Amino acid sequence: MSAPSHAIAPLGSRARVAVLAAAFLGLLFDGVELGLMPVASLSVSKSLLGDAFTPASGGDWFARFTAALMLGAAIGGIVLGNLGDRIGRSRAMGVSILFYSICAALGSLVTSQEQMLVLRFLVGLGVGGMWPNGIALVAESWPTASKATVSGVMAAGLNAGILMLAQLAQAWPITPDSWRWIFQLAGLPAVLGVLVLALLPESPQWLAKRGGEGTHRDARASKSSPFTTLFGPTLLRTTLAAVLVSAVPMVGAWSASKWMVPWADSVAGASQASYKAVTQGWWAAGSVLGSFVGAQLVGWLGRRGSYLLISASATVATAAMFRLTAPLEPTFLPIVCVQGFVSTLFFGWLAVYLPELFPVDVRATGSGLAYNSGRFLTAIGVLASGWLFAALGGDYARVGGLLSLVYAIGLVAIWLAPARPAGGS
Fold first, then answer.
1. Which residues touch 3 (CB under 8 Å, ≥6 apart)?
2. Which domains are present in the chain?
3. pLDDT digit string (tens) for 207-255?
């Protein structure tokens, strides 16, 4: 049984802006971490493996690094999402930012692939915790604002980070002789983490639910675990459906879509070191817009209709990217941009849909569980795609084309999810 609600004054306009800005920046740097290894992986592997490097081993290690990040993000999203329901959204968000920043910076010191693998897992813990806490904090601090607009801005922040990283890597190419600097740069958001912990206000709705300003101790002492509520008779079906609809875009993005960057590097890297960054930049440009528009689609077409359209479009666009064009061909980059747009419509949709499903006292845990459980499947899917990559002789196009069918699962999955939110404030 949750604590009784108490009257808590809503945040002032400056405090709301500060919350939105901090959460946007936290997700922007989250995006930098997500986009880092697709552009740096082959250079890191060539540097650390030396003469033992082969194209097949490069693809295999890319799959391993991605799987480690996804596994860490899955665990971090659930654990740190739960932390947000216990000690507060802003505190848990600050912890998440510090975690991914410090562990990313340590990547600049590694001397082996295994060390980098461990650090990517640790980075993933913070990456996973940022999304549920940031989304919950903003949704509860801006209760009267347009959900689609605010959620769209937040979702766009993640992909804006990938776009920013792509521009940096295009200006200063990441090569086997010069890659440690990008990990050092990825550690700078630790400053933001400290500021969030020290200065950012807490969610008024969370404080009200927990009984007032001095409730951090009460939160830790709560007798009812959020997981008991989420998997109880009232919310079990909602929780499982949320996990399913979140898993489709997550598995599709990392087991299929992201292969385009190492594919571009393998084809053009020897002659154009920045081409992989250009490719990621075109994808990120589409994805920033897609993340924002995806949130608007919920209002335009409804939750179910919009998800069906996104699933069909992502399947077609991803198959086209791998089977109808190739790196350095004139059509490649425009199709990459389109694929980035349609595949990230999902994430704007999720930013609106998931917080609506769960009551305030389990909102961060529920959103984190749903969003990040798909990453467990993603870790398995990425390792399987690495195996498929080796089995198909390093054929990026065939691997991506086959795995584009993951998005088609969404055409079935959405019918198992609630058409309307079941949660409450």
1. 209, 210, 211, 215, 218, 222, 361
2. 13-196+224-415 (1.20.1250.20)
3. 887 765 444 444 444 456 777 878 888 878 888 888 888 888 888 877 7
